Each structure stands twice: as structure tokens, then as C-alpha cells.
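Example 3.
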Amino acid sequence: MVVGEITEDKDIVVIGGGPGGYHAAIRAAGLGRQVTLIERKDVGGTCLNKGCIPSKVFTHFAQEYKKTKHLKEMGMEFGEVEANLATLQNYKKKKITQLRSGIESLCKANKVEIVRGYATFLSESRIGVENGHEFSLFNFKDAIVATGGDLHYPDGIDFNSDRVLKERQIFELEEIPEELIVYGADYISLEIASVFSTLGSFVTLILNEDLPFDSSISKELFRQFKKQKINVIKSSTIKTVSDTEGKVIVGLNKANGEMVSIEGSHFVMSGKVKPNLSDIGLDRLRVELTEDDYIQTDREGRTSIPHIWAIGDVTEGPSLAVKAIKQGKAAAEAMAGLQVEVDLQFVPMVVQMSPPIACAGLTEEEAREEGYSVTVSENPVRGNGYAQLMDEKDGFVKVVSDSETDLILGIHMMGMGAAELITSGVLGLEMAARDEDFRFPLYPHPSMNESLLEAVEGLKGEAVHMPPRKKEMAR
Amino acid sequence: MSTLTKMKTLTMVQAITDAMRVMLQESEDVLLMGEDIGTNGGVFRATDGLQQEFGEDRVLDTPLSEAGFIGAAIGMGLNGFRPVAEVQFLGFIYPAYEQIMTHASRIRTRTLGHFTCPLVIRAPYGAGVRAPEIHSDSTEALFTHMPGIKVVCPATPYDAKGLLIAAIEDPDPVLFLEPMRCYRSSREEVPEEKYTVEIGKGKVVTEGEDVTIIAWGAMVKVAEDAAKEAADKGISCEVLDLRTLYPLDRDLISSSVQKTGRTVVVHEAHATGGVGNDVLAIINDNSFLYQKAPTERVTGFDTPVPYFGFEDFYLPDSKRVLAAVEKVARY
Amino acid sequence: MIEEFQLVQVMDQQGELVQGEYEKDISEDLTRTFYRHLIRIRTFDKKAVSLQRQGRIGTYAPFEGQEASQVGSALALQDKDWLFPSYRDHGATMTFGHSLLHILLFWKGRNEGCVPPEGKNIFTPGIPIATQLPHAVGAAFAEKRKGTRNAAIVYFGDGATSEGDFHEGLNLASVWEAPVVFFNQNNHYAISVPMHKQMKTKTIAQKALAYDIPSVRIDGNDIFAVYFETLKALERARNGDGPTLIESVTWRYGAHTTADDPTKYRDQQESESRRKDNDPVDRLMKFMKHRGWGDEEWMTSVQKECAKEVDLAVEELEAYPAADPSVIFDYVFATPTWTIQEQKEKLLERLRGE
Amino acid sequence: MEVKLHDIGEGMTEANINHFLVKVGDVVRADQPLVEVQTDKMTAEIPAPFSGVIKEFTVSEGETIPVGSTVLLMEKEQGNHSVSRRVVPETTHVLKKRRILASPYTRKIARENGINIEEVTGSGVGGRILDEDIFLYMNGESKSAQVAVENPEPFATEALTEPDAKTIPFRGRRKQIASKMSQSLRTIPHCTHFEEIDVTNLLSWKDTMKAGGGSISMGAYFIKAISVCLKEFPIFNARLNEEEECVELQSQHNIGIAVDTEEGLIVPVIRHVEEKTMKDIHGEMKELTFKALDGKLAMKEIKGGTFTVSNVGPLNGSIGATPIINEPEVALLAFHKTKKRPMVNEKDEIVVRSMMNVSMSFDHRVADGGTAVKFTNRLRDLIEEPQSMLLELM
């Protein structure tokens, strides 16, 4: 093209091909709309290319690596086991490529057109897409903004070193760091600490805030850290990071004002997710933002411009793919006139560390704060037969309930299989289940599931595998 | 169309490329010439990939010289070739106007048919795409007024391919106008194979009873939008797409305006001397006694096409057309 | 022919002076002025591309890479001279005194942008290629007839030399000995068509031979060569010695316009390597550093001032009154014809909702 | 910043721009009227949301624009260009929200019926909302069911219309009326009773008044009489507040008069009838009726009614009706045609009297038949013996 704005008419444009974006695109296509998905780089977004999937390759690797001792104990014979991260990197890339082409063919099968480039809203009904020098123009009827989030780090940390890393870079490593300093109290930091500790790094974990869990989980977690020889420094804020002659020195400010410095071979920290809205031109359309600069939406995902929608990390709430996916589908359906609703009350929180943690609903502390007459029950995994035979005896299931109505308020678990088992908990919470709703169904035996059953039974002191002394602990 | 015809979904600009590809494949005599049409595939990508496919001998990047290459195209035409010349915008054709006016259009007459000029000039035209000055001109009447050249103007991908093939096959010069606003705005099923749309034949786009709206190029969509809005108000409009501006489809115009008795002509070109006036002459000649209201014209103004910041004031839109429809309907 | 038309350089790519005779004419002040203008127009150019991407202006023709040609030539002009630009020469017009706001208005599709500042003889950008050349000849010839010492400069590209208007313009100027400088910026590409497909000649300067006009082929990224050679040509014009053709060899880094994609027709690596080795701004900076003229701090302050000036112009642009439909009608004739008057009234009525 | 046409009442969907009250470039104060718009029901002025300068009109006079459209652009004082960061008021925060004690399936039932489940009281243990609660809410005390009416299924009706069948638009005022009427009938258990009233004396009183130069319409007399009755039976000048579990007795007697216009029914309101003379009422009634017929009623003139009167007598027909209450009012009274009829008087003689029927609908949740009959009895007495009104003079 040489001059002018030769514009192509589109029906729906989705900006951003992350999990939220592509779910929205395919759902909308399924509802009979013509969808154009604009992606600046790779479909799958942060989750597939940078975040969840790469990190899960590592957590899975560490979990399997840890098992080898147990496998030998059972009689599997093999030689020395070594963790080769270079091979793991290839495996990771292969899996990501497979998953990405899976999404691309899904889009194709659903007639979702993928356009590469950077999108900018030019008006409320027109968008420009820049790909190198190519600049294409589309008119649209509806748009979904799913541009995700960018990570932000405190000023003054120089990441231009192969030893001072952002959380995504650590999953690019091809060698196991000797002494790893991890800074952060979120699930990503915990996973990193756990993975590299399992693989043989000496890990120091610096917590800048309290752990985001029920107190029982936090307490057990600290015990596990001790057991796994992870050095934990609580309530500290990072001040400086310097990389000199192969050593990373981290300067910390502890809660009591004391300045400490720690030395290690590598440093990693997780950033804060902020909505990625720069350059997409929404400010000039005067789309309403929240106080924290997220896009303001209604419960269907509609922004202050009724035919522009926003989902995922550009909207407030936890920065999780699960949220974006739900919002994406809801927005597509709402566009088709279906009645939809997104309720993020019971977003399951999962930490794939060793042992895994999974939670949903209110913590004991939150439940008390909200004024419930709280009863809790904790069932240690140790009492579960299947856990015994797998030799995965760490962890417990804790249930929080309202003793006035028997309503289950929250479920918190740590132990092998927690990420899968939490689904039963989430389902129960969404059904507004009371204790009997959990106790009445039959649970497979032997399996980890029984830990959940017994935790619920424990609310009334009726769990068979909990010793009477423990039964009385139900408060 | 037979049900076995293979179809593909194309934008207008893709359909135009397709027409040229079909004709380049069919005959060695066909060749393309123009500025930036080779490596670059044309400033609107209308010749995208054709130089790679057919070679630099048949898809010629010319120097920046409209009078030169159109004059040369005339020379090739009278010496056995069927050149298809692209000017980047109708507004840039003026250096070549002399060549067209004084030669292309009268070679056959001058030589009693000994020399002929089977030349097609393709020209993107019209406003509405926020292009700079001159790029948005709509001066089709300068050519319909010129004896010896046919002027066609498709509004859809299907018609674009069929008309362009017909134009290339036509033994005389044809100016092929391409409304830029329609280039990529929508897609349509187009047969993969060769077919033609007859030059000189318009078509009924929407059937109706009360008012005839006559348009071409980018104004067809405007007319259709107005017809939809009029339907909401209880006025049934028949929309005609003339497709050929010289010679006009007299039969189509007459049959429609005799049915409705009320007519609105829409064009984005200037009012004075516009093709709309020739449409009016046909109505006057053939259908005077059928008329229930004076024909309304909705056109651009007698001003240069303004800079694009003022374009929306200049261009007829469905609101303006609707007002005219209501006026003739209420007359 | 290329031997007869050797590239004239005053400063080489490393920023070293290669023609000592100019030493006396080059002062710190002059180079600082050059630097300021180069930064100013480059800042504007980059901003304009980004404004287009945001839909805040329309299609835009960037000139990045050609700054020395435009600044050097425009600074050689005198206040009452005439400037006839093409659409890519607003670097020259703003250097010669056009307002940034008006240039932005032009690219936003507003006729108002074509109005030059009071007293400035800046004509509107020539959109159809080469059409401005005969105008410049005419305007220059008019100055000659009036008996002034004012001259005209006309800007055009390599592709323009293929148009009839180029040849007709040169011939007329030659015959009339019009005080005009034909300033050709040879950036090697007419949209996608490279010079070797545009013409058989290796140089543009040689075309002047046919019209018996003096010509010179200069390094268009060497601001000194551009400035001094343009001064000379203008001086000849003022002295009644007639026209000159200057071929200023340069390069546009980017696209033909923001709607164009240069990767379709050329390897952008070439642009990048030229940017690295032969950037007009870098060359001047190197020169200044060698001389110890203009420290970092001063340069940063110039960059900041220019950015501020451009931002201010953008603010003015966006605060500019909305398009007034009367503008379409009121300037077609000195007195509107009844047709135009009637069409105007109808439109205004409609806009008022009557 | 944009100034938009907001929904200024009664779920309007569009409005016509009558004229601008300011010019581009004007400096305006917050709340200064900027533009006059005309809706199905009234004329209204859009005020400036803040002090500033008018930058541009984005619509033109005479244009009809949907709610939500931008009418003009304004710039805030002190030239603040920054991006607006207002919070969209109608937004529900996705995050901190009360837990909904209902299964996802039950929530879907609510959603699909346009019910905001947060408004439904759960009957299950601990306040769990069951499917039945949703259905009950829909049938009995639906507040949000209105939504369903405003968004009729777009597809369902299409097939029913034959291509050449004549249609009349179901939009604007008509749609408003439809929605209000359905809403009222769905929420209020209506009870209607009839009474006949001898207006012979009133007619002759009226004639006497007229001869004396003081013309008073029957309608004005009825309204004043109703006000007297409402003072004695305030339950009919009330509003049911279910959320607070109380009936709010209104101190003002704001009596709406139903006016039949070309575009349909509209109910302008005479305020403070209890404080006004019959002459005032007569004058105001006339003015409001004219405004209603001309479509010139302002918003405030159709709002805040506490009781409605429908005088169908002048239409020269109908002897009874079951009027629909003008929600959220409690009662409505219709006056029917006056007709000479043979009546039996106290002396058992058959005499010719001018008789008029009235129909009264009331909300049976709030009042019972006994009270309603007492109300109409009292009204009958006041109308049959105009002199008795003297006792009510203040």
C-alpha cells in the first residue's frame, strides 16, 4: 500500500492470543462469529511460552527426580541419576512447540484467523496492526482486549547479568546453580525454591511478605523448608543486588531495620504483574480504568465502551490463566447474548512444589474475620494407606466450616496429588456443600481422595483414621 | 453457474489479481505495466506475486512516467499486444490524459479500423480512505465524455474479476475504475476459473417498488444502506449498480425507473458534468411520462475533493441518500 | 559519465574535513545550528510516524536518513527566497520556517496545513510527481522579471526525473536563465523501483548536460557539502547566471509512507547498515566531537528542547478546532459561483439538522 | 471529556436533540444546562457534569440519538488533559463479592431469567438459594423481571409476522407503557370494585358556579374530593416498601391524571392537591393536559405521583373497567361516563338522575376490600352532596 487507509471489515477482533484470548476466540467462533485473533508473537501467551508451562516442566522434573530414591527402594534398579538441564530445555521447547501448534490448529479448525503484529486502537471501531513496516487496518464490530500483563521489578536491580535473573529466565538455565537466592513469597518463588533445592542447589528463600496461605499450611511449609534444608529469611526487603566476579551479593533490610548481606551464585526474583496497556491506544478512547490502572469491566467483561471487552491480566484480580480462560469464554458468550457470570470467589490456588499445595475458599483466619463460628479439621496424609505405600507421607488436608450451618468455607491441602484433589473441593464449594454433602458420596479406596473425606469427617470428630486425641483437636 | 464451479472467497483486490492471472495464463499477448507493480506487487497489492509467476517481461515495472508508459501501452496495443496498464491513482492519470484523449480513444476512427487499441487502464479511485490530496479524485466523467473509450467500475469482488476479464478481451480501450474503499472491505465467493461480466450491463442489487437508487463503485454500499434505512420507514427501494459508466445500461435504468417512477442518483464525483446527468438524460428520453417526482441527485460538490479531514462532509453517505429518497417518495 | 560527476564531499563518513578550503567558513556556531536542525526534524519525523500508528494523523511520508540534504539546503536559503517542496520535504520547509503545527495539520488531512507563515514563500507539497518543477521555474522567472535577487529552490526525488515535467522544467529554466536551484534528493528508490530500473544513467546530475545547465553530484548525508553547494548554486542564481541541478545522494531508511512496507522490495539490512555507517546526524556529531564542539550535555539539552517543541505542536494539533465544512466551499473561487454557494448552504443546513 | 446522553428516566432508549443551549467555546458552570432533549415522554435539559469549556458538538440539532451517545465534548477547567480515571459506577467489583449460596445450576436459572441472584432470599438452611426460591421470586415479587420484558427474545417473534402483514412500531412510549403495565400486573395483586354515584346535584352546582363566572370542571372537583378521602384513608396514598417491610404513608397528595395522547397514555402529576384550591387544580389540570398532548411535559411533571385518576367520562363510553395500578402507587380510580338513568329515590319513586360509575383498583397486599369500599363510599357522599365539601374547608 502506498497511502490511505484501506480497511478490511472484521466481525470480532481479539487482541492477544494467550489462554484468555484464544479461548474467547474459539468460543466466539463456535457461537457463529467471525473471529480475527491478533498476536504480536506466539499464541499461547505468557502461560504457554513463558510462564505456567515452562515452570511446570521444571516442577514435574523435580518431582520425578525426587522419586528415584523411592523407586530404588522398591526394587527398580538403575545407575546414578543425574539431572541434565540442557536436555530438559530441549524437552521443554518441544512440548511448548507441540502445545502451540495444537492451539494454532484449533484456531484453524474453528476458522479463527490469526494476524501477527502489534495492535493499536485507532477509534472505537477501528484497529491498526503493525507488523514490521506493514500496517493493516481493520474495522470491527466487537473487540476483546486480552493483551495480558507485563512483569515489573523494583528499580535499581540490574538484570543484565546471567546470574541475576527474573523468574522466567531461571527456566532457561542449562545448569543447576550452586547457591540460589530466591526473593519473593508468591507461588512462583516457592516453586523455584523447591525445584532447585530438590535438584541440589543450596537455596536461600527471602520472603518479603507473609505467605498467602492458611496458617496451618504456612506452618507446615516452614517445617518442610527446614527438612529440605532451604534457608528461609522472613520479612525482609531487598535493597541491592550486585554481581561481582561470579558472586551475587544481595543486600537486605530486615523488619527490625538490620541490614544483612547474603552471597550466592545466582539470584532470582519474581515481578509484579501490571496490565499491558501501553501502546494499544485505549487511553485515547477513554476506556475507564480502575484506581490501579486495570481496565474497568462489568461482570461480563464489558468495558466502558460497550462493544469493547477486556479479559485476563488487563482486568483486576489474580494474574492466573484460569481467570483469563473463564473470562474469555464468558465474554464470547455474553456477546452472543447469553447470560453469563464470572465469579472468582473460588479460584483454586496451586503451588507445584514438593509436596504440592492446593487451596480454595476461606482460610481459617479469614473465616473468623468474617464472623463465622469456625470449626476446622486437619487430616494428616500420613494416615492414608495409599500415601504410605507411595511413600508420600508429608502433608494434610484441612477443612474450614461454619459450625452453625455445617457449610464448608474453605479447603486447604498439602501433599501428593493436591492439585487434582482440590477440584472436588472447588466443586463442593461452588455447590455450597455442607459437611454431609462431602461425607455421603463413596470415595475410591485406596486413594489420596480419602484424605479429603476424613478431613471433613474430622469436623465432627468422626474420622476413623484420626486418633481420638486428634479428633478432639477439631475446634 | 454450474454447481461444479470451484469457488474461493476473495476481497475485491484479490479478485482483480485473479482476473489478471487468468488472462496472463491464457494469452502471451497480455502483459501488465505500471509503477511499482512488479517486485512490490503494486501499491495496493493488486499485482502481488504476478511478476514472480510470469516474469519481468510480462509484468513490467515502469519508470515514473504516466504519459510515457500509457503512450507506450498504446504502441504495444496497436502492434498486437493486450497491455493492462495500472496508474496508481485515478488522480495521477492526468499526465497521460493527452495520450488517452488524443490517441487511444481515436486510433480506430482515425485509421478506419486499420490500427486498434485494445488497452485496459486500471485506476484505483475515490475517497473515503483518508488518503492525501489528489489520491481521492473521482473524475470518471472526464472519460465518459471522451468518445472512444469504455468506462467500467465494479462494486464487488465477483463483478471486478468478471468485468476485468471482459475489459481485457474487449477490442477497444477500457478504463477500469477500482473503488479503493471496496478493495478489502468485504469478501465474496468468486469462481476460480475464467468468466466474464458483460460490459454495458448494470444489475439490480436490491429489488424494490417505490424508489430507484442508482449508484456505482463505493456508492453502491451507501445506496444499499440507505435502502435498508428507507425500508424501516416503509419505503421500498430498488438499488441499481450500473457497473459500466460508458455505455450506460439504458434498458436497466428504464425498466426500473418506469416501475418506481421515482429516482435518486448517487455518485461521489462533482455534481456539474457528473455521470448522473447522463442517467437523467436517459430517464428524460425514455421514461418521462412514468415519472412521479423529479429525480434527485446526491453527489459530491463542485469543489476539489477536499483534504481527508473534510472528506466526510464531501462524500455522500446513507443519511444524505435517505433524505433524497424520502424527498422523492413524498413528492 | 560517473567519472565526470564525482561525488562531492566536504566531510567524510568518519566526520573528518576533506576539503580544507571550507575551514574558514565552518564555525562552531554554524555546526551547532546544523545539529539543532537535524535533531529537530528527526524528532518530528519519528513522532509523526508514531502519531500515524495511533490513528492521530493520516498516512505520513517519513524522511529519516535525508535530514542533512533537507537541513543543509534549506539553511542556505535567504528569507525571501521561494521553496517548492514535494511531500517528503517538510524537513526542509520546517527548517526554512514553516510551523510544525501546520505541517502536522497537513498530514491530518487539513487544508489549513498548506498555509505558510506570513511572509514565507513556501508552496504546498507537490503530490503528483515532478509537477512542482515548472512552478519553481515560473516563480523564479517572476523574481528575475521583478529585478530582485531572490531565487527559488525546488525539491524532488530520483523517480521524478522520469516525468515530462522534469525535462520541461529544466529546459524552460535553461532557456529563460531562471534563478532556480533544482535540488534532487536521490534516495535510490521511487517507492519500490530502484534507480537502475528508473533510468539507464548512473547519475542524475548528468541529465543537466542536455539542457546546458551546470550540475553537481554531492554527498547528501554530508551537511557541509549540501550547505556549501546549495549556497553556490543560489549565488549563481542571484547573480543572473541561471539554474543549477544538484543531485544530493542520500537514502531513506524507512518506508515510502506509513502505508508502505519496504521489506517487499528491498533488503532493510541495507538501511540498517547505512544507518550504522553513514547516518547524517552521526557524521556531524563525529565532526563536532573531533573539534570538541558541543558536549554531551548540550546535545542532550537540544534533544530535550526539540522533543518539547514537537510535543507542544502535537498538543496544539489536538486542540485545533474541528474541521469547518465551509472551508471546502469558500476558497474555490474568490466569489463562489451559485452552484457552490447552493451546495454549501444545503450542507450546512443538513449539518444543523434542518 | 465527553458529555453523554444518560438514561434520564423510565428506561428511555433514545432522545431527540431539540437545541443546544450553549455554543462551542462557551465557558460553563457545573450543572448549567447544555442541551435540551426530547424523549418519548418529556423535554429535559442535560446539565454540565463539571465546569469547563465546550469544545465540540458531536451530534446536531434534530438528530435522534440512543442513550449512551456522546452529545458534546467539554474540557475541564484548568485544562486538565489527563486520561479520565473515573470508576464506572454500574460496575460490580469482580473481586470482593458476597458469597452466593447457590449451586451453579441454580445461578444459571437466575441468570437466564434476568434475576440478580443477590436479591433473592434463600429459603434453604443457612440461607441457601434453591431453584424454587428463584421461581417464587420471579412470580411473586419480581423486581428484576422487568429486564426480561425489555429484552424480548429477538428471534421468537420474527417467524410469526407474515412478510406483508402491516406492523406498527412497538417502541418508545408504547414499549414503556407495555413494560410498566406488565410490571404492575406481575407484582401487584389487583382488586377492583365498582360504585355508582349520583352527580345530579354536582352538575347543577357546577352550572350555578358557571353562571357566577367561576367555571370548575368535574374533574377538578373529583380530585379535590379524592384528596379529602385520602386524608381519611391514607393507606391509599402510600407506597409498599417490601425490603424494609413497611408501608410508607405519603404526606403529599400528588395525584396523577391519566391523559390519552396520540403516542399513548401519559400521567402528569398535580402536586400537593391537599394544599390547593379547586380553582388551582382546575387550572393546573388544564395546563398539564395541554402539555401532555403537545409532548412538552418535563420529567418532574410526570414523576412522584401517589394516586392516579383516570377520567374516561369525556371519552363518552364505558361503564366500568379494571384499571391497572400505576406502580408503585397503591390505588387508582377511574371515572366513567355520566348518563341519565331512572333511579328509585328514598320515596320509592322512579326519578331521572345523572349517574356516573367509578372503578377503583387497589393493591390487595396493602389494603383490603372493606377499607376500599369505605373509601369509595366517602367519595360518593362528597360528590353527591357538594355542600358537604364545605365542611372540609381549611
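The mean pLDDT of chain B is 95. Chain B has twelve helices and 14 strands.
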